[in-house]
Known about the structure:
Layout: H1 4-7, E1 11-18, H2 21-32, E2 36-39, E3 51-58
Antiparallel strand pairs: 1-3, 2-3
Amino acid sequence: MESFEQTRPRVVRIQITADDTATAQEAAQQIGELWLSNVLRPRRTPGEDGVRIELHADLDRRPGDGGYPDVGGPTA
């Protein structure tokens, strides 16, 4: 399987870390308003502070373009 970077050079992976889920989700939503993106589910890592959300943003497509980038993985 090809890596994320090899398959989509104009799609960026952004990881958001926040103290709580609501803050992380709000940040992901605001980034999603700038570029077409999909957001993965919030997750916590045992022994680490905060919650993390990863999203993939397609720099070539604005949210009004419709659809979602094909980057694999579950979407929330």
